[in-house]
Amino acid sequence: MVLERPVVIYSKSLCCMSHTVKTLLCDFGANPAVYELDEVSRGREIEQALLRLGCSPAVPAVFIGGELVGGANEVMSLHLNGSLIPMLKRAGALWV
C-alpha cells in the first residue's frame, strides 16, 4: 500500500492531527493516497502494524517515497526546517 503513490497517509477521519497533515500535504499539491483506518476494512489490523513499526500514536502515519516519515510532529519538523518540499520532490509527489 505504501508504494501505491509517492505519498501515503494512514489516518482516522475524526483525528485533528491527521486532518492537519492531510491539509498541509494537499496544499503543497502532493495528492496523497489516504487510508482512513476507521472506514476501511482491515483498519484495525493496519493500525496494529503501524504501532509495531513504531508509530505512536498510530495515526497519522506518513510515508513518502515508500519510507516511513512518521507522524504529525515529524512532518511538521520537516516542514519547518525546509526539508519536506525537497523530500516530496525527490519522491515524485511534486512537479515544481
Automatic annotation (TrEMBL):
UniProt entry tagged with the keyword tRNA-binding: no
UniProt subcellular location: Cytoplasm
Keyword match ATP-binding: no
CDD domains, A to Z: GRX_GRXh_1_2_like
UniProt cross-references to Gene3D superfamilies, sorted A to Z: Glutaredoxin
Main localisation: cytoplasm
Span of domain Glutaredoxin: 7-69
This protein's UniProt keywords: Cytoplasm, Redox-active center
UniProt-listed PANTHER family: GLUTAREDOXIN
Family: Belongs to the glutaredoxin family. CC-type subfamily.
Name of the protein this chain belongs to: Glutaredoxin domain-containing protein
Biological source species: Brassica cretica (Mustard)
